[in-house]
């Protein structure tokens, strides 16, 4: 894994040890077994940014303490797992429609990591949106 070789070269080669599928109707095996592995070994490695609150970019190293971040990052992971199987345009679609959209929101100094920093860590500062109980029987 050389420096600057690109995102494809950072991924481990799972093809050498993969067992052939017994039933072709089985779901494809996940490349990353969970969201934490995806964030640490794919997203953080390939979506490199220098977080700087004054410069308009932030990140929380304890991203799993933010419900919005978990939801967005899981959506990114699941979309990546699906689109990686499309050898033609899958990764382009993932970057355009998923990664850039969600990461611009996540890295914004406004939400959801407001108050957090890569250097100082997690800070809970944002209250949930206020919600009134809907009328009985509406849903």
Protein model, in words:
With 139 residues, the chain is an all-alpha fold. It has a domain at 29-119. The protein has three helices and no strands. The protein has helices at residues 35-46, 67-83, 90-107. Helix 2 (67-83) packs antiparallel against helix 3. The chain is globular, with a radius of gyration of 18 Å.
Number of helical segments with 4 or more residues: 3
Rg (CA only) = 18 Å
Sheet bearing the most strands, described?
none
Helix share of residues?
A: 25-40%
Total strand segments? 0
Enumerate the spans where pLDDT stays under 50 for 5 or more consecutive residues.
1-18
Mean pLDDT: 81
User: How far do the termini sit from each other?
Assistant: 52 Å
**SSE series:** HHH
Dominant shape: globular
* Structural class assignment: mainly alpha
> What fraction strand?
under 5%
Could you outline the blueprint of secondary structure elements for this entry?
Blueprint: H1 35-46, H2 67-83, H3 90-107
Would you kindly provide a brief summary of this structure?
The protein is mostly helical. 34% of the residues lie in helices and 0% in strands.
What are its keywords?
single chain, 3 helices, 34% helix, 0% strand, globular
């Amino acid at each position: 894994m050389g420096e600057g070789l690109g995102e494809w070269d950072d991924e481990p080669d799972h093809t050498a040890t993969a067992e052939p599928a017994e039933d072709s109707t089985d779901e494809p095996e996940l490349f990353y077994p969970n969201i934490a592995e995806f964030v640490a070994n794919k997203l953080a490695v390939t979506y490199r940014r220098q977080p700087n609150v004054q410069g308009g970019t932030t990140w929380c190293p304890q991203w799993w303490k933010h419900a919005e971040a978990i939801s967005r990052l899981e959506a990114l992971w699941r979309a990546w797992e699906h689109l990686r199987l499309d050898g033609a345009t899958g990764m382009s679609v993932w970057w355009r429609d998923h990664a850039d959209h969600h990461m611009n929101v996540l890295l914004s100094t406004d939400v959801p990591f407001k108050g957090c920093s890569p250097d100082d860590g997690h800070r809970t500062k944002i209250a949930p949106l206020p919600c009134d109980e809907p009328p009985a029987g509406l849903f």
